[in-house]
Amino acid sequence: MSRHVIWCLWFSTNAKFPNQTHITPELKEKAKATGLEQLDFDGCSELYVKNWDDFEQFYGSPEYANNTLHRKDTANFMAMPLRIVVGVENVIFGQGLNSLGGGDGLHRDDLNPREFS
């Protein structure tokens, strides 16, 4: 089993909802039309955990350090220093992540179109 597969298995077991977003050159070009400032990177990773203890267990683990921070090729795919955003998700519309104890937001069936006319 490859190192990448082992890492993914460990990651998916200890993190509840890992996600990666890749920003392609084509999408960056299209985004210029919005006139909004773009972030200065081509991707990011999101890690959803149920509580802070789960994050500390993940971030402080030898698997994370050995398979991410201390790899020789880390500089090829991670800009240093790492930055973090921490928050609580508030789902406004759609389905929440029940595995994390999240609640659902509004669904289309909950809305009465006459209220908005």
Automatic annotation (TrEMBL):
Residues 105-117 have a biased composition (Basic and acidic residues). The lineage of its organism: Eukaryota, Fungi, Dikarya, Ascomycota, Pezizomycotina. One of its GO terms (molecular function) is oxidoreductase activity. Residues 21-79 form the EthD domain. Belongs to the tpcK family. Gene3D superfamilies: 3.30.70.100. This is EthD domain-containing protein. Residues 98-117 are annotated as: Disordered. Pfam families: EthD. It comes from the Eukaryota.
